[in-house]
TrEMBL record, chain A:
Record-linked SUPFAM superfamilies: MetI-like (SSF161098)
PANTHER family hit by this protein: MOLYBDENUM TRANSPORT SYSTEM PERMEASE, MOLYBDENUM TRANSPORT SYSTEM PERMEASE PROTEIN MODB
Pfam families named in the record: BPD_transp_1
Residues passing through the membrane, by range: 20-37, 49-68, 88-108, 149-170, 197-216
InterPro entries: MetI-like, MetI-like_sf, ModB_ABC
Assigned keywords, A-Z: Cell inner membrane, Cell membrane, Membrane, Molybdenum, Transmembrane, Transmembrane helix, Transport
Membrane topology of the entry: Multi-pass membrane protein
Organism placement in taxonomy: Bacteria, Pseudomonadati, Pseudomonadota, Gammaproteobacteria, Pseudomonadales
Annotated signal sequence range: none
The name this protein goes by in its record: Molybdenum transport system permease
From TrEMBL, chain B:
Name of the protein in question: Molybdenum transporter, periplasmic molybdate-binding protein
Subunit text: The complex is composed of two ATP-binding proteins (ModC), two transmembrane proteins (ModB) and a solute-binding protein (ModA).
One record GO biological process: molybdate ion transport
Organism: Azotobacter chroococcum NCIMB 8003
Record-stated family: Belongs to the bacterial solute-binding protein ModA family.
Highest taxon, organism lineage: Bacteria
Gene3D superfamilies, per database record: Periplasmic binding protein-like II
Cleaved signal peptide residues: 1-23
NCBIfam families: modA
Coiled-coil portions: none
Amino acid sequence: MPLSALDFAAIRLTLELASLTTLLLLIIGTPIAWWLARTRSRLKGAIGAVVALPLVLPPTVLGFYLLVTMGPYGPVGQLTQSLGLGTLPFTFAGLVVASVFYSLPFVVQPLQNAFEAIGERPLEVAATLRAGPWDTFFTVVLPLARPGFVTAAILGFAHTVGEFGVVLMIGGNIPEKTRTVAVQIFDHVEAMEYAQAHWLSGGMVLFSFLVLLALYSSRRFKPGLS
Amino acid sequence: MSFSLSRLCIALSAGLLACAAQAGEVQIAVAANFTAPIKEIAAEFEKDTGHKVIASLGPTGGFYTQIHNGAPFEVFLSADDATPERLEKEGAIVPGSRFTYAIGKLVLWSAKPGYVDGKGEVLKKNAFKHLAIANPKTAPYGAAAIQVLAKLGLGEAVKPKLVEGANIAQAHQFVSTGNAELGFVALSQVSKDGKLTEGSGWTVPAELHDPIRQDAVILAKGKDNPAAQALVDYLKGPKAAAVIKAYGYDL
């Protein structure tokens, strides 16, 4: 196999990025999805739209805004600098932040669907059995929404692995820090190293197919995000 | 009366035909670093000849792949001389059409006024966090930047601080947004009429790196298009030369 050490480093980095992003998204996305599923607030439409934005925005828009706002003159950049964290572009942490935005709808929407599908009844029953809200959430909602969590995790992970434009715009192509597989493939094609590009691209096709196959073969999954 | 009318018709249709034959269209692929000058040159070319230029701007390596896969480009303005040479060897261009249309100049540039001194000493002080370059594997300006660092004996010292843009346009973007304090960019990106448009810079002496020759070719697809030939002739002419020089290229 003509893959180099740098290619394997890119694969490892991509898997680390996708794993960490998925974990964070499940933590951040669960309360957002729960709120969206239960609220009667007039803000529901607006928050739902903001969460769905990365579905329709070109990654270049996200990448450009992140580069500007997280840079030394941007508001986020000035905050991170005053906290002694430096600036986020060109760092692994920066990629994680970008990926969380980029893959947010892929995690929130399946969770929201799963929470909505549970309905009022099980929660009312739990309440009559004197379960508190936290108790209800962990012993009733989480088990019932399990398929939603599986779908959300798979989609969030796979979508982050497939991220390219945002990483290209804020990453700076640093080996073992910000050079993901998608960027590495772009480099190989640019440098006319087609053999390596083929190996990595073929691997991506196979990986993506297997992930979706697992997802679509599971009986409880209904295709479509919303 | 009827006689003269038909003569008028013939004269008119002949005129239309002549117009159609003259005012052609040429589809070109242009290296990202030449964006600003080609816009100006194309506008003047269109005004002077009536031909229309449809320009795609992008990375040289990407264009190479696209050309080999049926892209409709008729003229290619590369960011280097290696890619056109390769296309020539592969028989993908009109034989003998390759020529150098500009020689790129490298500048160490910062968006901050006064940050880069006139001798590039700021590199040796090494007090910055990020130094932006174009990808040295694929972009000639990036390869030249690496040669400069090696010549100055700083290759290893600044290596951990290098951030790569996919092309020279992105390297410039990293510096102009302040995410990298300084970077090696094309002089054409930051100067007009011999002066820096903003920030501070050090024009790297040409002997510190191999010349950045930017070659153009007429591609096989443009073989029978007079507009393609006309554009190439125009690029070699004095009007284009003035624009190219004004943007900080050598000829």
